[in-house]
Amino acid sequence: MRRVALHGEDQDMISIENLSKTYGGFEAVDDVTFTARAGRVTGFLGPNGAGKSTTMRIMVGLTPPTSGTALIDGRPFAELPNPGLDVGVLLDASAQHAGRTGREILALAARTIGLPRIRVEEMLHRVSLSDSEAERRVKNYSLGMRQRLGIAAALIGDPAVLILDEPANGLDPAGIRWMRDLLREYADQGGTVLLSSHLLHEIEVVADDLVVIGNGRIVASGTKEDLLAAAGTFIRTRDAAGLARALSAAGISSSVTSEGAVRTDADPEQVGLIALEARIALTELRAADGAGLEEMFLELTAEPQRDPISSEGAAA
Amino acid sequence: MTTTMERTSAAPARSLRSTEQIPTRRIIGVELQKMFDTRSGFWLLVGGAIVSVIATIITAFADPHLSYGAFAAAIGAPLSIILPMTGILAVTSEWSQRTGLTTFTMVPHRGRVIAAKLAATMLVGLASIAIAFSVGALGNVIGSAITGHRTVWDISIGNALTIFLADGLGMLMGFMLGVLIRSSSGAIVAYFVYALVLPAAFGALAAFQAWFRHAQGWVDFHDASTRLYDSGMGGSDWAHLAVAGLIWLMIPLAIGLFTLSRSEVK
Questions:
Q1: Which of A100, A141, A193 to mutate to test the interface with B (most CBs of B within 10 A)?
Q2: Contact residues for B58 (Cβ-Cβ < 8 A; gap 6+)
Q3: By the CB < 8 Å criterion, does B1 face chain A?
Q4: Do A81 and B20 touch (CB under 8 A)?
Q5: What are the respective helix, strand and coil percentages of chain A, to the nearest 5?
Q6: B4, closest residue in chain A (CA to CA)
């Protein structure tokens, strides 16, 4: 059975369609649809408790969905003959037996997947765990070391798809940089990377595509560029109020920030022309990147996050 | 969504490559390895070995009636208490230590993993009784030589088979509690209730209540399975074992397997 390609492209490696998961009356995941494509890093962004982990657990068959489908290259995860060769999964770096050594954990993975023992040493080297660290029991690992071990376990089968839940948690800045480069390289070699985070800045630097989830629902998805463009234009001028009036006269809504800057959904070119006509000098005119995405993230997620207290079924 | 290709790399999209199912033998092997590669598993094994050596020595010097049966029982009894715990932990650690997140994604078929754990648990039980018989035989020969007694071989083949069965049921008991409770501490407490508290309670009840004395065989699984260690299981003994085993072992196991197959691994 082949999937229906949503975008008419044949490289949707992860396809989530109309996925829902209900606990009692509570909709943890509510009609979620998105894809992650080969050769790209897809960031799965949302505040804690938004449904990211539940969606990822459903993807790999650990949690049965209430309805909808989650397919890996057109197939349910459980139908992959030897999933470790196809999909590298890291859901929780702390979910390891405290009494096992790091090397033993990788050895078990290698044996299960059917890989030669040398892969264990290669992976330890790849994630920079030293010999003595590999011999320590995981109980004595820092969260950063556990993340590295988890990444090693995910990569050990050299899979085409990576599914990582908050992989940067506990990593130091150098570790985050290392992880970012690793994921970029993986995608550049044709791999599919889906990683989740509740931190926008963390994901913004590495992701090509973004899927934003809040309160179990997808609130935005698309390429990072598209989402940035949608965030509008940022303007500084000595006459903010005058510019706002001029924009308003042209039928464009805008807002003046507390610092006296102007934000609007119109694109920079349009704003520049209106300012020229109104003879208002601009000191700064640019697409509202970064900060704009952050605002979008807060806007998109804060509202549904506050809402459920009053909505029915939240008591469950 | 049409102008989104600018960051797509030149490298062709990688596709899935796995074609062969993971063989069951390999899963069993991994599960066996997991039973003993942790600190707790390792010490259960070492503890079992130490206890069996001590039991052999004590029997050799303390028991006035040296026989093969005495040695085998002295070694087998502590092992039959300790080893079912490896069966418990084999299942519960996937939940208590949350390793299930990894295990059930590498093998996304709960049934296959749990069946492999059952096989591994039974192999451990089989091996432990084989060791008890071997060490017991050694102790019997050496012990009787040292003390000057005649070497007595008093376990029949039939009795040896029922001892294997009793041990297997003990291991299955641990496995069942692990599957049903899925928490290491909870399942171990339940195991001691099963192995120590319930038999004592049933014994006391039978001692003081005449009506229960007749019913005990049917409902006291420990009593019914202990008879497997003695030679000469009668027809009613087998019937008792079947009924008590259904109540205390098979029904809870079925419930446990059902809930496990539908549970969420978190």
A1: A100
A2: B74
A3: yes
A4: yes
A5: 40, 25, 35
A6: A223
Q: Find how far residue B266's CA is from the centre of its chain.
A: 26
Contact A99 B33 (CB under 8 A): no
Q: Using CA atoms in the order A66, A68, A73, A78, what is the torsion angle rounded to 10 degrees? A: 20
Q: In chain A, which residue's Cα lies nearest the Cα of B26?
A: A112
Cα–Cα separations (whole angstroms), residue A267 to A228, A250, A291, A293, B1: 11, 13, 16, 15, 19
Q: Does B141 touch chain A (CB under 8 A)?
A: no
Cα separation, A179 vs A172, in Å, equals 10
Angstrom distance (rounded) from CA B6 to CA A253? 31
- Parallel/antiparallel/unpaired status of strands A41-45 and A209-214: parallel
Alpha helices in B97-219 (DSSP H): 100-106, 110-147, 157-181, 184-192, 198-208, 210-219
What residues of chain B lie within 8 A of the CB of A62, using their CB? 100-101, 104-105, 264-266
Q: Report how far residue A295's alpha carbon sits from residue A283's, in angstroms, rounded to the nearest whole number.
A: 22
Model pLDDT for residues A100-152, shown as the tens digit of each residue: 999 999 999 999 999 999 999 999 999 999 999 999 999 999 999 999 999 99
Taking the C-alpha atoms of residue B64 and residue B61, their distance in angstroms, rounded to an integer, is 8
* Neighbouring C-alpha atoms within 13 Å toward the C-beta of A111: 18
Nearest CB among B108, B262, B266 relative to A83 is that of B108
Q: Which of B9, B17, B20 sits opposite A39 (nearest CB)?
A: B9
In whole angstroms, what is the distance from residue A269 CA to residue A255 CA? 18
Instruction: Locate the chain A residue with the closest alpha carbon to B32.
Output: A108
Instruction: Convert the pLDDT of each residue in A67-112 to its tens digit.
Output: 999 999 999 999 999 999 999 999 999 999 999 999 999 999 999 9
CA distance A280 to chain B (A): 34
CA–CA distance, B41 with B36 (Å, rounded to integer): 4
Residue with tokens 């446990």: B256
pLDDT band for A229, please (50, 70, 90 cuts): low
pLDDT of residue A303: 57
Residues of chain A neighbouring B105 (CB-CB closer than 8 A): 60-62, 77, 83, 87, 89, 91
3-class secondary structure, B44: helix
Q: What whole-number distance in Å separates Cα of residue A102 and Cα of residue A132?
A: 10
**Per-residue DSSP letters for B181-194?**
H--HHHHHHHHHII
CA A196, chain centre distance (Å): 4
- Does B109 lie at the interface with A, CB-CB under 8 angstroms? yes
Tell me what pLDDT residue A105 has.
97
What 8-state DSSP symbol labels residue B229? G
Round to whole Å and give the CA distance between A6 and A35: 8
Handedness of CA A238, A239, A241, A245 (dihedral sign): negative
